[in-house]
């Protein structure tokens, strides 16, 4: 079985988690969600070896605020995103960032992925899981034992459903049918906050429990 190391660092104005996924057999690595100041945040790793690929879980500005800077310095690195989240990488992302008094430079993906697609990194294969509801084109990345969840699932919470393009019922469906069907021992690496597991969220997450029961959360 392929072995994968996951290293996370929080950066940018919203302390967004970016992840370095390292295929141990080859030393090749992928960068997930390049937030603001990404080149400084991971400067030590970039100086050793730039990432082989960049993977976007969704296009909210705090998750891709450093993408334009990254692409300017490393234009040959493939950048993967879901087609439905592309507007958020462009001018729509700038508008949302400006609504909270942040700057954002529009950027582009070079590759598209969708539900069920496989992304190869050395000897490791990631499965793309469509998980919309927090925003259009939101995805998670799964390798045995590991889920890179973006803003779909957090320790004790789930992604917001009150933002433009978000929807509670869609998110609840993603949680029920795509996320909580994974093995209980899967380690979850969210877009904000500490790691957790599928089992921990099944037993301790009030919102997940409501979603699994087909109920709405009091708003």
Q: What's the short version?
A:
The protein has nine helices and 14 strands.
Explain what this protein looks like in three dimensions.
This protein is α/β, with parallel strands linked by helices. It has one domain: 4-Layer Sandwich (Metallo-beta-lactamase, Chain A). It has helices at residues 38-41, 43-48, 61-64, 67-73, 86-89, 91-99, 168-179, 198-204, 206-212; strands at residues 4-11, 16-23, 29-32, 53-55, 79-81, 111-112, 118-121, 124-130, 139-143, 146-150, 153-154, 157-158, 187-190, 196-197. The termini are far apart. The protein has nine helices and 14 strands.
Q: Write down the oligomeric state.
A: single chain
Question: Low-confidence stretches at least 5 residues in length (pLDDT < 50)?
Answer: none
By DSSP, the count of extended strands is 14
Spell the H/E element sequence. Answer: EEEHHEHHEHHEEEEEEEHEEHH
Which characteristics define this entry?
219 residues; alpha/beta; Metallo-beta-lactamase, Chain A; 6-stranded mixed sheet; 27% helix; 27% strand; globular
């Amino acid at each position: 079985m392929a072995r994968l190391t996951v290293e996370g660092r929080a950066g940018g104005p919203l302390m967004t988690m970016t992840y370095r996924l390292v295929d141990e057999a080859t030393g090749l690595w992928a960068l997930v969600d390049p937030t603001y100041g990404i080149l400084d945040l991971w400067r030590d790793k970039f100086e050793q070896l730039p990432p082989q690929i960049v993977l976007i879980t969704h296009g909210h500005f705090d998750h891709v605020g450093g993408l334009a800077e990254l692409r300017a310095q490393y234009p040959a690195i493939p950048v993967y995103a879901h087609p439905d989240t592309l507007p958020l990488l462009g001018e729509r992302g700038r508008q949302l960032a400006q609504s909270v008094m942040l700057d954002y430079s529009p950027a582009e993906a070079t590759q598209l992925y969708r539900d069920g697609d496989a992304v190869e990194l050395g000897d490791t294969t990631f499965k793309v899981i469509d998980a919309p509801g927090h925003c259009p084109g939101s995805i998670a990345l799964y390798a045995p034992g590991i889920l890179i969840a973006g803003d779909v699932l957090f320790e004790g919470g789930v992604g917001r459903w009150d933002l433009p393009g978000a929807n509670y019922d869609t998110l609840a469906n993603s949680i029920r049918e795509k996320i909580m069907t994974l093995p209980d021992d899967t380690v979850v690496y969210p877009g904000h906050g500490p790691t957790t597991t599928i089992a921990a969220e099944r037993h301790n997450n009030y919102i997940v429990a409501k979603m699994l029961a087909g109920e709405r959360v009091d708003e």
